[in-house]
Amino acid sequence: MAPSGSGAVRSGCRRVFYWSPVLFISAIVVWSYYAFVLQLCVVAYLLVYHVLLFMFVWAYWRTIFTRPMMPLEEFHLPPADRQLLEREDRAESVQEVLRRVAKELPVYTRTASGAIRFCDRCHLVKPDRCHHCSVCNKCILKMDHHCPWVNNCVGFSNYKFFLLFLAYSLLYCLFITATDMPYFIRFWTNSLPDTQAKFHIMFLFFAAAMFFISLSSLFSYHCWLVCKNRSTLEAFRAPVFQHGPNKNGFSLGASKNIRQVFGDEKKYWALPVFSSPGGAHPFPPRPARGSQTWLLGGGSSETESDGGKQRDSRGKRGTLET
């Protein structure tokens, strides 16, 4: 059914709202280009500046427009099982349907109660590190977070691009701050000519320094996550294996953890091109957890639901998954 007029207006307003952070960042970058190149420019700085600007825009573009990767068809419930699940009244029978679907899938993690991680919105068994995004309304592989500054989910398909976006924006702000500082000092000592450029030089320094400080903490945090092979969600809620939660359950050592994101070929590490290994689903648990079982057939009679943790009149229960 087509949306009503008021519904279409609300939907349009939401889309505009979601894109406003991206437009804000784009406007800041365009203005910084004007302030640096046309008002401050020293010829010797131009080459470095434009290289950093190009890499920053390239990484930002890839982060925004790379579609999040969703689980393969094999993780979705077949139509017959989906209908059976919807009709089933007994929790044991519901769990049996999920066990039959999940028994051959490469999944190690489960809910805190030992249940199969099942999304009742996407009707699929969740692969390891997969979470349902309430903004995108879909399950995202290795979801890290939904970022309003890129109007996109950051996950398996674009996490490398997101890291490079942070890195190049950090270098971009650092370069502008460093090259603008002598002119900023001259401004405060009243030795700079009183021209229109004074405002741009002053504001450019403050804006670049402010973003540099903010990005430093965010980039450092994500570098730590990469070295630990964790996502932002996993840093707040450790993945659960057969023997319980383990915050280091996917850590393979710092070197291998970095390669899980950037790939084995170092020549591609600094470029916003996809080089993450492993395909869509294989995120190997650390070798020390060799006793982890490869699937959930022996789990509890509870299933995980994105709709919240509740037991309805038919006896089903689920756990909210971010």
UniProtKB/TrEMBL annotation:
Reaction catalyzed: L-cysteinyl-[protein] + hexadecanoyl-CoA = S-hexadecanoyl-L-cysteinyl-[protein] + CoA
UniProt EC number: 2.3.1.225
Secretion signal, residue range per the UniProt entry: none
Enzyme's top EC category: transferase
TM spans (from-to): 16-36, 42-61, 161-179, 199-221
GO cellular component, one term: membrane
Keywords tagged on the record: Acyltransferase, Membrane, Transferase, Transmembrane, Transmembrane helix
Biased composition (Basic and acidic residues): 306-322
Entry keyword Transmembrane helix: yes
Localization: Membrane
PROSITE patterns, sorted: DHHC
One of the record's GO molecular function terms: protein-cysteine S-palmitoyltransferase activity
Disordered, as annotated region: 279-322
Annotated Palmitoyltransferase DHHC domain residues: 116-236
Domain notes: The DHHC domain is required for palmitoyltransferase activity.
PANTHER family, A to Z: PALMITOYLTRANSFERASE ZDHHC16
Family that this chain belongs to: Belongs to the DHHC palmitoyltransferase family.
Protein's name in the database: Palmitoyltransferase
Organism of derivation: Scleropages formosus
Name of the coding gene: ZDHHC2
